[in-house]
Design a protein that fits this description.
The structure is a homodimer of 152-residue chains. By secondary structure, the first copy, chain A, is mostly helical. In chain A, 60% of the residues lie in helices and 9% in strands. Chain A has helices spanning 16-35, 42-53, 59-66, 70-82, 104-124, 130-146, and strands at residues 56-58, 86-90, 98-102. The first copy, chain A, is globular, with a radius of gyration of 19 Å. The structure holds a DNA duplex (30 and 30 nucleotides).
Chain lengths: 152, 152
DNA sequence: CGTAAATCGTTCATATCGTGAATGATTTAC
DNA sequence: GTAAATCATTCACGATATGAACGATTTACG
């Protein structure tokens, strides 16, 4: 009976890949709508968040971490600098490198985004038990690990 | 002691919103990479998939279902028509309406995408027990429901 | 040493994607 | 039977991400 299960295979709608892709996209869009009033886009928040795990990092390292082109990271950093959320500091040991540093305002903005995320969670997770929420969270964490995403 | 829990709140990285947004985005990107050789983008697959639940539907209905502008749906349908995956058929009862119908080739393409999704699942879910996978799937289904996404 | 190659940040041109406004054909309301 | 609404479509536009080119700096190595 080897291979008896999955003869037809999981239907497309039921795959984790399909559900993650569709649900993730609309969640990201909704998140984008809420942070727009703070002049932020999801990638800006991703950059701010990356700076909390790697307090100071070169722009190129950050670009690789986020999986975006270096030229894009420049513009993200420019915008965050305009907002006063990050500062560029030349690495004295290697003057090519621009390290990004979170300012107090950057921390504040990040705290605001965290509150928005929690508020979004209340809507997304409505009707789920505590155990179900925990299972979803750890499941997402495991998938993130398989994708080499830098989560805690 | 009202409000004692969540004094600091769930950290941003641990929120479902943040994890869904980030993980979902990279999963969607990876999926996009795999279907590219078939001349498809995620939205094309979404349209094909929508046609399996509503076998024939007007383009405007489909646009609303997918949450995209009607003008975009025209271009998605154009491309799928070029690929021979869908046919436009005028509704005889209301000749303004163009109904989209999946062709055999469309069904084939969708089956290919389903196989790609299952293959992606094997990577995303590596290391998760059967129970964990099931919990993740139902959790995603529940979130999809809270977002009014049309899943089974 | 000193020159060649690599690295980092930046700018720029370009491709792509999604939207909203305008248009034409058809249908519905009154 | 005329006016308003609906559907599909085209078009111009904004926004986003990329890769190529460039200047400044650093590293490798004859």
């Amino acid at each position: 009976m080897i291979g008896m299960s999955d003869v037809k295979g999981t239907p497309l709608f039921a795959t984790a890949a399909f559900r993650l892709g569709t649900v993730g996209t609309v969640v990201a869009d909704r998140f984008a709508g809420r942070i727009a009033e703070h002049d932020l886009k999801p990638k800006h928040v991703g950059l701010l968040a990356a700076l909390t795990t790697a307090p100071v990092a070169s722009q190129l390292d950050l670009a690789r971490l986020m999986g975006v082109a270096p030229s894009l990271l420049v513009r993200l950093a420019d915008h965050l600098e305009d907002l006063g959320a990050v500062e560029r500091v030349r690495d004295p040991g290697d003057r090519r490198r621009q390290a990004l540093r979170l300012t107090d305002r950057g921390h504040d903005l990040l705290a605001t985004c965290a509150e928005i995320s929690r508020s979004l969670d209340r809507e997304l997770l409505a009707g789920l038990s505590g155990a179900e929420r925990a299972a979803l969270r750890t499941g997402l964490g495991a998938v993130a690990g398989n994708l080499d995403l830098p989560f805690d």
